[in-house]
């Protein structure tokens, strides 16, 4: 195996973590909308929400429409179990514990899953022969403070996390068979280093199905395609020109393996320059086909073509995202390769190019997708650098991903509005572009400003996720920003809580 310099990333995109972290990973955003229809509209009074008063520097901003309810103004307490020194983030894998917020029992509400015993370093609960996770089920107003035992398979290292990607320990939690419940998928043989199970001519993953109350302790062999050095993770992008991912590209509810680059050409897209293709390997429900089908992708002027599902470099920005909300991921090219880090179109009418998913390939003819005129130039689907923070996610709950700009580019890496009345700007998805007029999306005011949809690298933790499972994204602040507390939730040690701001309309 020549894996020197191998860089594996984005495996979380194929896992259940996606919808929760609100990352821009194609299918993650729409899952919520698909599984639970939007709730009936309520008046402001019924919803108990204050109307937004636009206070951006005193005078109303002409580009902002005010008066629509957003997140609940006052937080509700979201009960948490007592675990380790406190559950202060939606997901954690470290010295202070291992947990994930994901829907493990398949009832469309995320549960809190503790995967390692806080008294032992990176070791599952239970015994070596009968390992367990602890699941704190979602009650609709919190996580149950009492855990249920969740059996997990035996693995040499012990399955102490929902996802891991370190050489011989590569596994993930994803719904591989499309039955609506997350399965445990071990993609690399612990006896090797980034090598799948089986043989090089007949490689396999090991799948442990979700029974609704645990994972089967016996695996099934899941066939995977043959690809140079082996498909040893759900996705990878390597210096050796190997690029693949696992996603539901045809929208049938089951993920496919999508191989996007040909290592024999140094990592260029497959096909010809005029008719480039990816290779997709269909999911039969019991494995992936070993014979690939051509999937049309657009031509690109770069040396390698569209050779990965998601790319973010100085002169190339694209992602595989369901932009039109039809349930199938589209290819979205968000910066013009002729002008680095600038969208297509003109200064006064910027646009992305979208290549719609036709079910059997992407339309090779791009169509313009309007993006708003903003000082920071919206040249990618999401940005998490200081002062340039935005996300593409369905905040208004109509099933289509919206553009949400969460920092004011005029300085300070803060949201729009004022410290006491901060707002995000939401540009709704019209089905053929983003509305050029923003809605003011009121967000909570706290010591450390909420300047991104999910905190990511920031010191206080929060996330925009559908925590109560009603199909609307909520804002949850999981770490108390009080300076006297460090990496602690709200409440007390005996009765910890998150601050839950319900999403409403
Ligand atoms: Ca659940
Ligand atoms: Ca499943
Ligand atoms: Ca599929
Ligand atoms: Ca929307």
TrEMBL record:
<protein>
    <submittedName>
        <fullName>Cell surface protein</fullName>
    </submittedName>
</protein>
<feature type="region of interest" description="Disordered">
    <location>
        <begin position="29"/>
        <end position="59"/>
    </location>
</feature>
<dbReference type="Pfam" id="PF13517">
    <property type="entry name" value="FG-GAP_3"/>
</dbReference>
<dbReference type="InterPro" id="IPR028994">
    <property type="entry name" value="Integrin_alpha_N"/>
</dbReference>
<feature type="signal peptide">
    <location>
        <begin position="1"/>
        <end position="21"/>
    </location>
</feature>
<keyword id="KW-0732">Signal</keyword>
<dbReference type="InterPro" id="IPR013517">
    <property type="entry name" value="FG-GAP"/>
</dbReference>
